[in-house]
Amino acid sequence: METITAVTLIDNSTIEIHIDQDIEFELEHAIQLNDKIYEIGGNRKFYQLTIFGNRSVPTKEARSYSISQEGSRFKMAEAIVVKTLSQKMVFNFMINVERPSVRTKLFTCPNEAREWLGSLNS
What we know:
Structural class: alpha/beta
Number of strands: 7
Helix content: 25-40%
Strand content: 25-35%
Radius of gyration: 13 Å
Order of helices and strands: EEEHEEHEHEH
């Protein structure tokens, strides 16, 4: 499977994830992402900043996994950054109806998302 994400350790407790634009983020991608995070930090938990490229959205299966205990095992909290209205609708549904297992908030500005994660980390 091709790599569609970039995962970077920003500081001791924060990981930044960039997901390419114009893709359907599938279950296999979500599992691959958790594998990358494990490679970086072992079993440590991180604050995660996930930035979705234009028009990229997760499938229902990827969302279900990502918000589950299993899919969230390396998360202390997650800030999700989106760029389009359709993305905002999908993630609002995920956060408010499907209910992630860790604290999750939606943003349109990466700097605001970083500030929020920083406030949790202080």
